Amino acid sequence: MGTKRHFKVWRGDSSGGEIQDFDVEVNEGEVVLDVIHRLQATQTPDLACRWNCKAGKCGSCSMEINGMPKLGCMTRMSTFTDDETITITPLRTFPVIRDLVTDVSYNYEKARETPAFAPPEGVAPGEYRMQQVDVERSQEFRKCIECFLCQNTCHVVRDHEENKEAFAGPRFFIRAAELDMHPLDARTDRKNYSRDHQGLGYCNITKCCTEVCPEHIKITDNAIIPMKERVVDNKYDPLVWLGRKIFRRDELEKQDKATPSRHERENMAPSNTMGVTGVASGTSTPFSSARQPEPPAVGPDGKLDVAEILSQKQGGPSPFGDDHEFPLPSDRVTYHHPTPDKD
Angle at the Cα of 169 (from 166 to 171), degrees rounded to 5? Predict the structure, then answer.
């Protein structure tokens, strides 16, 4: 024989609703999902609740229990005191469809936007070979059951609905981290994609997503923080930044991809003619350094002119841009040689 316990369950739909009180019999060993099923069987047959496996592997019965995002099938009634009131509400971050069922299509939209695994060129399925250490490195992230509790508890979208368009969320940060760690993934822009398109910079690593993960994935420590570190190394490291400024590699790579070949230019219609920088003729170049480097002139003897360094003709893209002239005017020189016999 069980005991009577008091429950508060949110009832309603997208137009609104309220919390209703119920007294339900609870037996030893039961979970919250069992109580919901008993409610449906005895008191509220129209109570809507999404569930499937009842084994903590499908992620369907996500809900908020006493304000904490949890799985109904994995939350045992024995964790509450006998006189405690249990409040059950739908996931707060996503639109309510009815009662405890929410519209989580936002997550599937972000999943479709995430670039899939790109197999290496020349390697057919069945020929992939990985070291065990590489398998174990990202195995943790494959445990995700897509319950979206981490998405629900992340305050970036939980408290700011307007961020959803630019923010993918913790679930897809671990997906990006998994693929970035994959030794056979041919894409090399996972870090840049996370920064530019998934909103990785919005995350301020409060670890709330890690706390609610039913699979105990260390989302913050093992996925988000390493991805942030790689983004910093790739984009903001001073040495990398200086090398990019000097060689303009990123801009030259964009130019090489955008510039049509000689054969393509010859077969283009006049209206579609492209300039050497890959933009339509008559428009300004997107970058001042997008032109190809020009080699310095050599004399009849095949040697450089001694005065070449004084020439106004630029030998290649300037790391300082084209808005500086050298030598600088005297009024802009801030360094003066020390006067003899003075400190």
Answer: 145
Inform me whether the pLDDT recorded for 271 exceeds 60.
no
Tell me which amino acid residue 101 is. Answer: V
State the average pLDDT over residues 148-159. Answer: 95
How far apart CA 248 and CA 256 sit, in angstroms, is 12
Report d(CA 233, CA 249) in Å as an integer: 16
8 A C-beta contact, residue 55 and residue 17: no
End-to-end C-alpha distance for the chain, whole angstroms: 96
Q: Which two tokens stand for residue 252?
A: 């030259």
Distance of CA 184 to the CA centre of its chain: 20
Q: What does the block give as tokens for 295?
A: 């080699």
Give the model confidence (pLDDT) of 3-36 as tens digits.
999 999 999 999 999 999 999 999 999 999 999 9
> Cis (ω within 30 of 0) for the bond into 125?
no
**CA-to-CA distance for 15 and 214, rounded, in angstroms?**
31
d(C-alpha 270, C-alpha 168), whole Å: 43
Backbone angles phi, psi at 88, to 5 degrees: -120, 120
The encoded tokens of residue 300 equal 């009849």
**Structure tokens belonging to residue 132:** 């065990």
Q: Which residues contact 43 (CB under 8 A, 6 or more apart)?
A: 22, 24
Assess contact for 220 and 205: CB atoms under 8 A.
yes
- Give residue 292's Cα distance to chain centre: 34
What integer pLDDT is reported at residue 192 of this predicted model? Answer: 87
pLDDT at position 310 = 47
What pLDDT shows up at residue 130?
85
d(CA 159, CA 251): 38
* Tens-place pLDDT, residues 78-106: 999 989 999 999 999 999 999 999 999 99
